[in-house]
Amino acid sequence: MTHNDHTDGARNFLDGSTVGIVSLVVLLALSAVVIRAGVWDLLIISWAAFVAMAGAGFLATYTRRDHAETLVWGYGLASGAMITSAAVFLVPQAIGVSGGTPQYGGFGIALGLIVGFGSHTVGHRLAHMDLPLDRTVAELSAHALSAGAIIGLIYGNMDVGLTLGLAIVSHKGPAGYAAADRLARNGRGWSVLLLPAAGVGIAAILSSLVAIPASGAIRGIVFGFAAGVFLHVAMDFLPRCEIGSEIHDVLKVEGDAHHLLDRLRMHAVASTALGGFVVFVAWAVLV
């Protein structure tokens, strides 16, 4: 690594928005409260999300190479783990807490999938507006806060274990890596990613204080909604190796890229399957 690489990295960090640093300070303050309360699962998940996204952003700043295959494996492992975790841990819980009427959980799942799709569409529309915050950071921050809020509701009202939360935030690494690379190509510093990186924990810790009513119908809908949202996010992170996709954008090749994309599709299938298998192994060991 050259002196210029170090200088560019430092400049990229200092070029970030103050809101990122403030978000980190807020997360540190809330973490102190969580430590005193002894809520260790939520603390670990919050900081795992932060380290995954911020660390990947830092790594992308110093990486100068074609990393399409890296992104495919990162997205595939994360989405496979999330799909499996939501299906195994959240869906049965949503059905089980519905008070003898599992349809409430089913309606919640459907609602979560539809709302997830709708919010993704609205977010894409907002991306074309002239916002004071970078488009990439705005999208990631909105997603991080909503995901964190749902994680907090789940962990504040249910005993679901650490595996679920870690699987849910596993996509923060590849998402941060891709976002930092995109920011660098646009001449922006990566430290603005501290906002969405810390946003998961901030929202999770605050929403964990909200108590969901004991009504089976309400709990079934709420936990079903959480399952549906996370299933949507997981499927949205499936690595799509198509012309015009993010994977295609980072290939940096001229001419016909179909052969490379066909090869990457095999990696996409393998990584997604492996992500799901890892969750199965973790569940089998811990049960």
Layout of helices and strands:
Elements (H helix, E strand, L loop, with lengths): L2 H12 L3 H20 L2 H22 L6 H29 L6 H24 L8 H23 L4 H7 L3 H14 L8 H14 L8 H21 L9 H4 L8 H29 L1
Helix pairs in contact: 2-9, 3-8, 3-9, 4-5, 4-7, 4-8, 4-10, 4-12, 5-10, 6-9, 6-10
Shape: globular
Structural class: mainly alpha
Number of helices: 12
Taken together, the total number of domains comes to: 1
Strand fraction: under 5%
Give the strand tally.
0
| Unreliable parts | 1-16
Question: Mean pLDDT score, rounded?
Answer: 80
Q: Rg to the nearest angstrom? A: 19 Å
Relative helix content: over 70%
Query: Order of SSEs, N→C?
Result: HHHHHHHHHHHH
User: Main beta sheet: strand number and arrangement?
Assistant: none
- Termini gap: 45 Å
